[in-house]
Amino acid sequence: MTSLPVRFIQNQSSRKFYRFGLLLVSALLVLGALVLPIALRPSSLPVQLGDVAPQTFVASKTLTYESAVLTQNARATASNAIADRYLPMDISISRSQIKNMQAMINKISLIRSDKSMQFEHKFIMMLQFENLTITQDAINQILQMSAQEWEVVSQEAISALERSMRNTIRSYQVQ
């Protein structure tokens, strides 16, 4: 028979061994429970282009993208949704335009009446007017008019501008 202290020591060492074994098995089970789902997960989803996804995927972070094209379309839509608003007729604009027309007619009259310049030089000077877009054919006609014809044309041009500036001009009236 074994004595009591020896049995107690053997019993205590087997308990330590049993506890260590239990701790080791528990740790392995916990590690297996954590690692096994990751190891069993497929590396890619069995989804082809055009297939319906088997689950809902959620992005890990939120990204925003501002489309320049869609922004421009939205601005154009908003701009078109607002009706045109016209201000009352401004008489100073009318006077300014008539004054500009008279100044242009005076320049053309000076060029036409200058006897020292040749036709070609007059033609080139009229082509170089800054605020006037005129065809070469129109310049030829202006330079070949008689003094009386030019007087009638210049008066009619001012008269037509005055008539058109009396009324407000809307964008739908311009062709």
Low-confidence stretches: none
String of helices and strands: HHHHHH
Gyration radius (Cα, Å) is 48 Å
Mean pLDDT: 83
How many DSSP H or I helices?
6
The secondary-structure class comes to mainly alpha
Q: What is the helix content? A: 55-70%
What amount of the residues lies in strands?
A: under 5%
The outline comes out as rod-shaped
Characterize the biggest β-sheet. none
In total, how many beta strands? Answer: 0
Q: Assembly state here?
A: single chain
How far the N terminus sits from the C terminus, by CA atoms, comes to: 126 Å
Give a structural overview:
This protein is an all-alpha fold and 175 residues long. It has a domain at 91-173. The chain has 6 helices and no strands. It has helices spanning 4-40, 68-81, 91-113, 119-127, 136-144, 147-166. The longest helix is centred in the first third of the chain and has 37 residues, at 4-40. It is rod-shaped, with a radius of gyration of 48 Å. The relative contact order is 0.06. The model has no long low-confidence stretch (mean pLDDT 83).
